[in-house]
Amino acid sequence: MAATLSVSLSLDPKHNNWCYLYPNTTHFKPHQALPVYLHKPDRHTFKSFFSHSHSHSSSSPSPTVPNSYLEDPLRTGRFLSNQELEKLKFLENFGYFQELTTGSMWVRVMMPEEMDGTVGLLAESFVESMLLPAGYVSLLKFLVKQYLVERRAVMPHAVTLIGFYRGEEEEEELAGTVEVCFDKMGASTSPPTPTPPKNSPYVCNMTVKKQLRRRGIGWHLLKASEELISQMNSSKEVYLHCRMVDAAPFSMYKKAGYEVVKTDSILVYLLLQRRKHLMCKKLPVLKKPSELYLSNTEEERPL
Question: Signal peptide location in the record (predicted)?
Fold first, then answer.
């Protein structure tokens, strides 16, 4: 049997917690999956993910990383080309680490066993931002999980990243998440307006845990997304949306080098939506993987 979900959901966040989730029709057919089996890698620490990232300290403690997501049950249900397999292997080894003034954080691809934690983070964020009763969390968790399952099915053309934060003398915790679409095959069939180019990288569904905001976590989720795009995609133009009323995120995006290329018309109010900016940044060609961020790592960031 095929479980079919047809949802049109526009989530309109406030404050420093901004996300856009637009699930579309999902046809999830496990019995049609065509699995790709690769060798099972040894368990290793997150430090092995830092080969593409900048770190201020090599002595920072590191959490263990779950087994390869290439073996997880949420397979794509399609044959993968050699190029796609190489990209999947690259995603598995991608990591971004950064020392902050209040602790440290690292960003990597979400593993299947971490989906429920990510779902909870997004659902709680949406309920808060839309001023909904807490009882809506369960419903939103169902919708968000269906959406994440759908997005995992298009890997390596899109990916969900998660960020972990460790304060001084504290254990690491899930701090935020962001989604990155690399090309047309990973683009949503129902993107928010103004519509970004489907074949260009696109950053969306970014959120930071409420208790951990204003520590630079949002800034480095964005930086990790840009670094991954620089290494995964030949196109150096990356797009994102920002609501006109969200002053703090807009300021952060401007500081990061994004410029407004188009803005919603006032007609979106008829759809009970906030007006949004479509913003774009041209990423420089990097000589070194983390060259883009070396000049900004010590600055205090608002999110």
Answer: none
Tokens linked to 214: 């204003």
CA 73 to chain centre: 21
How would you class 66 by CB atoms within 10 Å of its CB: exposed for 0-12, middle for 13-18, buried for 19 or more?
Answer: middle
Give phi and psi for 181, each to the nearest 5.
Answer: -105, 135
Q: How far is CA 4 from the centre of its chain?
A: 24
CA distance 245 to 256: 18
- Tens of pLDDT, residue by residue over 172-183, are 999 999 999 999
The continuous run of DSSP H or E covering 115 comes out as: helix 115-129
pLDDT, tens digit (0-9, with 9 covering 90-100), for 60-115: 444 444 555 555 544 556 788 999 999 999 999 999 999 999 999 999 999 999 99
Tokens standing for residue 69: 């997501």
Strands (E) in the chain, as ranges, are 3-5, 26-28, 96-100, 103-109, 158-167, 173-181, 202-208, 237-243, 259-263, 276-282
Given the residues 20, 253, 258, 293, select the one marked as catalytic.
253
∠ Cα 233 94 228 (to 5°): 30
239 is catalytic: no
Q: Report the alpha-carbon distance of residue 9 to residue 26 in Å, rounded.
A: 13
Q: Which domains does the chain have, with CATH numbers?
A: 82-291 (3.40.630.30)
DSSP code of residue 187: S
pLDDT, tens digit (0-9, with 9 covering 90-100), for 280-301: 999 986 655 444 443 344 344 4
